[in-house]
Automatic annotation (TrEMBL):
Entry annotated with the keyword Kinase: yes
InterPro entries assigned: Spore_coat_CotH_CotH2/3/7 (IPR014867)
Protein name according to UniProt: CotH kinase family protein
Keyword Transferase in record: yes
Keyword terms of this UniProt record: Kinase, Transferase
MF GO annotations: kinase activity
Length: 357
């Protein structure tokens, strides 16, 4: 196998270190490795990453190297197209929601072909620096308890902590406290005070664009997890960044075909419910969706992006025997995307016609 036309990455790991990682795939411990990126060698560390995918034969990895540089390598094992994450993040960037950049790579592991991976830019200090964004904190939504609710949806009881589902990646001593206060206030405040609080603490315009992106791409798992929050330094407002969009565009996170109506047009999670309780925000959201239906979320706009991604990776995919899906499934996926976009457009148009305010 060879990764014709794709950037190359090479990993060398000692047998003992690999066995230690494999002994507990759910551990987040790192192992030392030798890393080569397009011919340049680095000392680095590697760990397994992901949720249910950690039990798959082809795993995903987090790499740390150089001066605090991080890369995420996704096997995209459940996605027959290998492009759902990449296409989704390109779409978010098209609609001006800052999102990780991606590229497909060819990986070699101890001298043996490891197949095609998607390399994702980490959301970290470098991410913000490249975009000229000033942030004073960064919080990851790491599981489905990050739903902005006071009640645990599994038990029906009060959450043991309103920070359940979140992890502080960067911030000061009060970052966690401020986030807990935010969740509490959006649930308990009412009336004008609540609207004023939302306007002061949440970048609502960006949030509504993100909501539209999640709804249009059909990411059912993107509302209660699979996002990052950061506090913008000058405004003090929370802003949101999407993460992990493999289960989109007509397939769920396990790669199964799903209906184009899987995701409600108003999305999910308590914060979304609170924001859309206000007429002014509902009207702004409707305007965003209507605009995207007439601009970026059209097959004539999305198809060339898919074609370009396919052009880059098709030779390597054809040569990659580490994948779950046969090559003919990969070839057929553009039709799945087309069907999804056409059906999703119709669903959202019909739903918007029913909105009275």
């Amino acid at each position: 196998m060879s990764g014709e036309g794709l950037p190359s990455r090479k990993i060398t790991i000692q047998t003992e270190d690999l066995k230690e990682l494999q002994a507990n795939v759910w551990s987040n411990q790192f192992a030392p490795i030798k890393l080569e990126i397009d011919g340049t060698p680095y000392e680095a560390q590697l760990r397994f990453r992901g949720g249910h995918t950690r039990n798959y034969p082809k795993k995903s990895y987090e790499i740390r190297y150089g001066s605090n540089q991080t890369l995420h390598w996704n096997a995209e094992f459940d996605d027959p197209s290998m492009i759902r994450n990449a296409l989704s993040f390109q779409f978010f960037n098209m609609i001006n929601v800052p999102s990780p950049k991606t590229r497909h790579i060819w990986l070699e592991w101890n001298g043996q072909p490891h197949g095609v991976y998607l390399e994702l830019e980490a959301v970290d200090r470098t991410f913000f620096s490249k975009r000229g964004i000033s942030s004073k904190s960064l919080i990851y939504a790491v599981n489905d308890r990050a739903d902005f609710r006071l009640i645990d949806s599994d038990t029906g009881m009060d959450k043991s902590s309103l920070f359940d589902g979140y992890r502080v990646m960067r911030g000061d001593d009060d970052t966690k406290t401020r986030m807990i206060q935010f969740v509490r206030r959006i649930n308990r405040s009412t009336g004008k005070n609540h609207l004023s609080y939302l306007a002061n603490r949440l970048d609502v315009g960006l949030y509504l664009k993100w909501l539209a992106g999640a709804v249009l791409t059909g990411n059912y798992d993107g509302f209660d997890q699979n996002y990052a929050l950061y506090e913008h330094t000058s405004s003090g407002k929370y802003r949101i960044i999407p993460w992990d969009y493999e289960g989109t565009w007509g397939r769920n996170c396990y790669g199964r075909l799903c209906g184009s109506d899987l995701v409600d047009v108003k999305g999910y999670n308590m914060l979304t419910q609170k924001v859309l309780a206000y007429k002014t925000y509902r009207q702004a959201y409707r305007k965003i969706l209507t605009n995207l239906l007439s601009t970026q979320f059209r097959w004539k706009v999305i198809e060339p992006v898919i074609s370009e991604l396919y052009k880059k990776i098709t030779p390597a995919i054809q040569d990659d025997f580490t994948r779950k899906w046969p090559f003919y499934s990969f070839e057929e996926e553009p039709d799945v995307f087309k069907t999804y976009v056409q059906e999703r457009r119709a669903i959202i148009k019909d739903e918007l016609k029913k909105w009275t305010d």
